[in-house]
Each structure stands twice: as structure tokens, then as C-alpha cells.
Automatic annotation (TrEMBL), chain A:
Keyword field: Membrane, Transmembrane, Transmembrane helix
Transmembrane intervals: 113-134, 170-192
Protein's name in the database: DUF2812 domain-containing protein
Pfam families: DUF2812
Automatic annotation (TrEMBL), chain B:
UniProt feature coiled coil, ranges: none
Protein name: PadR family transcriptional regulator
Domain Transcription regulator PadR N-terminal span(s) in chain numbering: 22-84
InterPro entries, per database record: Metal_resp_DNA-bind_regulator, Tscrpt_reg_PadR_N, WH-like_DNA-bd_sf, WH_DNA-bd_sf
Organism expressing this protein natively: Paenibacillus herberti
Domain of life of the source: Bacteria
Length: 204, 103
């Protein structure tokens, strides 16, 4: 079973995954959406960390530490950031974090990732604007997205025919211009939200 | 004498450094910290991993050659050992002075 969902709040995501597990669906993979496999075994706690790794050996070492201490790594890769663990046996600790600052720290890393993503796209966007690949004018003047000569001087059926015909193309052009600013805004909002969760998690 | 800005060490950092006087990998550190603290300090995997990463950045511990291909092995550095000793002396001072007052 595959489910598409998006979270910024790791606690909410954990809660949802644990509810899915209670209903008999255990997370088996996360790539494009969440993949679940039906489980018969009794409910097992799922916990999340957020961490990216530069080297494969660091990732292996990280997974080995969790497995040694009773937490099976069920989803996540070296670069995915999101790491999912399932409690493998009774011997392990209750949680994958034993103090408040380290549990809050995952939100700091998450927030930094969103800022990094925004910081990555801002210069690209600026470069596209500088070379004229993306024009800012259409955002302020949507009429300029219509390229039919003399369109705005037409009237009646001739106008509406040409206008409606070109609207899908204009929307497409507009979306292309708006895509970068919207993406960058979203990344910054996500970074801001994750940082808010970081601050509130610290005072828990 | 001016005190080192890293002092006092937190309880978990102190026990991790103490555990790494001899080389150990992550899970062994976790077990040793539990034993050394008489079961008082129980570290979970995520917390320990972050602590190891931080201590490595501060050059208080360093990775050493390991026979285990999956698990990294760490050992305390001379700087780490120095801090451990300074914190031990700091606590000894506290114990001495307390002994005299609380009888």
C-alpha cells in the first residue's frame, strides 16, 4: 500500500506512523510516498530522527548503533535525512533519544536543510532573472503573458476566442515565472516552522 | 588559574570520555556509560550518536582503526583526557569542601 502525505512536524509524522502500525500497516519504505506492508505481529513503536550523512560508512555506523541497541532501521537512506526506526525487541530503550536537547536537535537539522534548499535556489533564481530567462514583469503585469498581437484591442467574440485559446499557454508561462519565487517562499516557511518546533521542543 | 571554558562537563559527556579511555564503538560506549554510572545514566542511540559527533568535532575523541567494517571505533584524545582530569579535580574540590561543611 502506498500513501502520499507531507509533514514538517516530526512528532505528528511519528504519531501517524504509529497509528498506521496499530491498524496493522508497518512502514517498509519511504521514497515517493510512504510504502506500507501489512503486519501480523503486535504493535511496535516507530521513532524518527532527521540526519544526513556525507559518507556511506558514517551512515552504516549510525544504523549499526541503533540496531545494536534494539532499534531496527526500517526506512531512510544516506541522503534522505528522514530516518525511521522500529523497536525490535523489549530490551531497547523507550525512545531513541534520552534527553530533551538531543530530541529537539532533529528539528534544528530539519530547519537547516530547508534553509539550505532555499539558499540553493535563490542564486539560481537570481541568475535566471539576470540573464532574462525569467522575467519579473509578468508577475506584476499578467497581460504581458499573452503574446497574440493586438489581443487587448479586440472586442466581442474575436477577443474571447483568442483570449480563451491563449489562456492555458499564458498560465503555463506565468507558472514558469512564478515557480521559483513560490518554491523559495515555501522552503523558507518550512524552515521557519521547523525552527519553531525546535524552540518549543527545547522547552518541553 | 583561569578555568577551561569547557568545564564543567555534563554528566553524559564525562561518562562518555571516561568510557573512551579505552577504544570502543557506539554500542559499547552506551553499555559502559550505563555500567560506570551504576545504571544512573541510560543513553539512547540517537542521543549518543549526536554526543559522539559533537565530541569528535571538539577533538575530544577521535576515530581509530577498526576491524569491524560497520562500526566505527573511538578513543579519547590527549585534549579529552586533559579535560577529564580537570573536571575530576574540580569535582574533588567540591567533595573536599562539602565534606568539611556537611558532616
Amino acid at each position: 500500500m502506498r500513501v502520499f502525505k507531507f509533514f514538517i512536524n516530526l512528532n505528528k509524522e511519528e504519531k501517524w506512523l504509529n497509528e498506521m502500525a496499530k491498524q496493522g500497516y508497518s512502514l517498509s519504505k519511504k521514497s515517493c510516498g510512504y510504502e506500507f506492508t501489512p503486519i501480523k505481529t503486535e504493535y511496535a513503536a516507530i521513532k524518527m530522527d532527521y540526519r544526513r550523512f556525507k559518507k556511506q560508512e558514517d551512515f552504516e555506523d549510525y544504523c549499526a548503533l541503533f540496531e545494536d541497541s534494539g532499534w531496527q532501521h526500517i526506512a531512510g537512506t544516506k541522503h534522505s535525512g528522514y530516518q525511521y526506526f522500529k523497536k525490535a525487541d523489549e530490551s531497547g530503550t523507550e525512545d531513541i533519544f534520552s534527553d530533551v536537547p538531543s530530541k529537539a536537535g532533529r528539528y534544528k537539522r530539519l530547519s537547516n536543510m530547508w534553509i539550505g534548499l532555499a539558499a540553493f535556489y535563490i542564486p539560481i533564481f537570481a541568475a535566471f532573472v539576470a540573464v532574462g530567462f525569467i522575467e519579473l514583469a509578468p508577475l506584476l503585469d499578467p497581460k504581458s503573458l499573452y503574446l497574440t498581437p493586438g489581443l487587448w484591442e479586440e472586442s466581442g467574440a474575436a477577443f474571447w476566442g483568442a483570449f480563451l485559446f491563449e489562456t492555458p499557454f499564458a498560465l503555463f508561462r506565468g507558472a514558469l515565472f512564478a515557480l521559483f519565487p513560490i518554491m523559495i517562499m515555501l522552503f523558507l516557511i518550512f524552515a521557519f516552522k521547523a525552527n519553531k518546533y525546535y524552540q518549543s521542543a527545547q522547552s518541553d | 588559574m583561569k578555568r577551561d571554558k569547557n568545564l564543567p562537563l555534563t554528566e553524559t559527556v564525562y561518562y562518555i570520555l571516561l568510557a573512551l579511555v579505552e577504544p570502543a564503538h557506539g554500542y559499547l560506549i552506551m553499555q559502559k556509560v550505563g555500567e560506570l554510572s551504576g545504571g544512573q545514566v541510560k543513553m539512547a542511540a540517537g542521543t549518543l550518536y549526536g554526543a559522539i559527533e559533537n565530541l569528535g568535532k571538539q577533538k575530544l575523541i577521535q576515530p581509530v582503526q577498526s576491524e569491524d567494517s560497520r562500526r566505527k571505533v573511538y578513543v579519547i584524545t590527549s585534549r579529552g583526557a586533559e579535560l577529564l582530569r580537570l573536571d575530576f579535580e574540580r569535582m574533588q574540590q567540591m567533595i573536599e569542601v562539602t565534606k568539611g561543611i556537611l558532616k
